[in-house]
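We were asked to recover a plausible sequence for a given structure. The inputs and outputs are reproduced exactly as logged, with field labels preserved.

PROBLEM: sequence recovery
POSITIONS: 327
GIVEN STRUCTURE:
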């Protein structure tokens, strides 16, 4: 098995690995990834998904991944991560743990819930959710991020929120924010403009060959010393094997003697971006973890300019994503 290097990234020298694992797909019974139903199967009780989460985390640890991303709104992802950390003990001592606040899980462990999560970017929500996160993860929390910060909520200009986040940073937690939607670049730049009020150390954003529009702003964040984490590199399954854009991705990249799978290629392209520090795998099975991990060895050989023709209009891309059903 290839060696995935341990790295320290950003001005804060956050310990990590270039590829990390996100728990959005295994912390709750439904998610908006194409193929999610087939990945999880019918067994989706709390105990079933805790077992699956542990299997995925075991596979990630075995593959050399040392960065794990969770959130308050990912169902019981934080609790599953905590029980895994307890079970693995010293084996997991080198794993960096990130989580997020700003959304609450409201799905009630139902597949047919009318609403699976609700946004609240108020200072009261931050106080409540950091308490909930620490009650589960204790002192293992390394990174805490605003979940899907947007300009319309005013979270990046709320003095009370910024002061609370600055207090967290003073305690040693790297604070950051994640972005979604066609205005990702505007959100990143608004956060950079607020650095004098809040020492943001991490930004997590969507980038993939179908939606590369945030790249210039992410390069600016990287130059400012923030750790740049890429999420949704497989476009919620569209760039995974069998996804509607997978064939186009492989065609643009060219077929070698042993062509990569679409998922490994998409992740490798994200890893190869000069401003990218950590790329998240959203694997829902141990086999997907192993397949995704091959991206690390591909990153130095991929042609980052070969897939520019795949880029879609950001509004159209995000409109299609919003229309995906929770499965």
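RECOVERED SEQUENCE:
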């Amino acid at each position: 098995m290839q060696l995935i290097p341990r790295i320290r990234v950003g001005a804060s020298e956050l310990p990590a690995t270039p590829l990390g694992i996100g728990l959005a797909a295994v912390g709750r019974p439904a998610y908006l990834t194409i193929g999610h139903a087939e990945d999880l199967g019918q067994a989706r009780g709390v105990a079933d998904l805790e077992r699956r989460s542990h299997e995925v985390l075991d596979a990630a640890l075995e593959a050399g991944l040392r960065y794990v991303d969770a959130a308050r709104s990912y169902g019981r992802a934080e609790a599953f991560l905590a029980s895994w950390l307890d079970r693995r003990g010293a084996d997991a001592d080198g794993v960096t743990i990130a989580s997020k606040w700003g959304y609450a899980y409201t799905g009630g462990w139902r597949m047919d819930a009318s609403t699976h999560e609700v946004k609240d970017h108020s200072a009261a929500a931050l106080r409540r959710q950091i308490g909930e996160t620490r009650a589960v993860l204790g002192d293992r929390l390394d990174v805490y991020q605003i979940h899907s910060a947007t300009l319309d909520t005013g979270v990046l200009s709320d003095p009370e929120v910024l002061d609370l986040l600055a207090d967290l940073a003073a305690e040693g937690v790297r604070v950051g924010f994640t972005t979604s939607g066609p205005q990702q670049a505007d959100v990143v730049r608004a956060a950079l403009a607020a650095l004098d009020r809040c020492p943001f150390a991490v930004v997590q954003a969507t980038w993939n060959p179908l939606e590369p529009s945030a790249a210039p702003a992410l390069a600016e964040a990287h130059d400012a010393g923030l750790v740049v984490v890429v999420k949704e590199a497989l476009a919620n399954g569209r760039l995974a094997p069998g996804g509607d854009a997978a064939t186009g991705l492989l065609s643009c990249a060219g077929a070698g003697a042993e062509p990569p799978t679409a998922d490994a290629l998409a992740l490798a392209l994200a890893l190869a971006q000069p401003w990218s520090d950590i790329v998240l795998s959203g694997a829902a099975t141990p086999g997907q973890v192993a397949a995704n991990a091959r991206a690390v060895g591909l990153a130095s050989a991929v042609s980052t300019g070969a897939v520019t023709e795949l880029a879609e209009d950001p509004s159209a891309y995000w409109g299609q994503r919003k229309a995906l059903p929770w499965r």
